Amino acid sequence: EIVLTQSPGTLSLSPGERATLSCRASQSVSSSYLAWYQQKPGQAPRLLINGASSRATGIPDRFSGSGSGTDFTLTISRLEPEDFAVYYCQQYTSPPRFGPGTKVDIK
Amino acid sequence: EVQLVESGGGLVQPGGSLRLSCAASGFTFSSYGMSWVRQAPGKGLEWVSTISGSDGSTYYADSVRGRFTISKDSSKNTLYLQMNSLRAEDSAVYYCAKKLSRTGYAPLDYWGQGTLVTVSS
Fold first, then answer.
1. Residue A34: which of A43, A44, A21 has the closest Cα?
2. Does A98 touch chain B (CB under 8 A)?
3. CA atoms within 13 A on the CB side of B47
4. CB proximity B112 to A under 8 Å
């Protein structure tokens, strides 16, 4: 069973800055079955990235995903006010698992 | 437009049962796998169960296997989660979600708004 860890736990940044979030898997995630989600308080998660690097429908191009094997990264090139949220990675092989999340808050 | 609307949450005593429903619209419900994901207050996301769109195969997290049952009624476009022998640690917001693709491994591209389950005496 693949376990995911995310770092940092909290990232404090200002609007306009670049955010780099890390997701590490306990073993290789085959075929890059790795997704990223954004969740704002009181809302359901929203799919941002699937297949490690493909943006989901309607996701702005300031969001990008990269990585393979056990190390994956979500990058937000320039933070907009609406980007302050919690971000989860997920590997969606069987059984699917989520990472513990990274909170991006306003510095 | 894809819509997923959960219902059936509430307060239940430890050891009790509850059935959650998720009404789906805007896509060919019978063709897609569907999942339940839960989130305890202030905590992260936990996958609970998935039912395959292709053959109805079911999958469960170890924490709920033997107590929860996922099912669907394609004639009603509705997903269910029957929860028995509930424990305090099952308290969470329960989301239903649709898989992105019809076959194979896929992330969850549409989510409902969630329904709150509280297990307490």
1. A21
2. yes
3. 27
4. yes
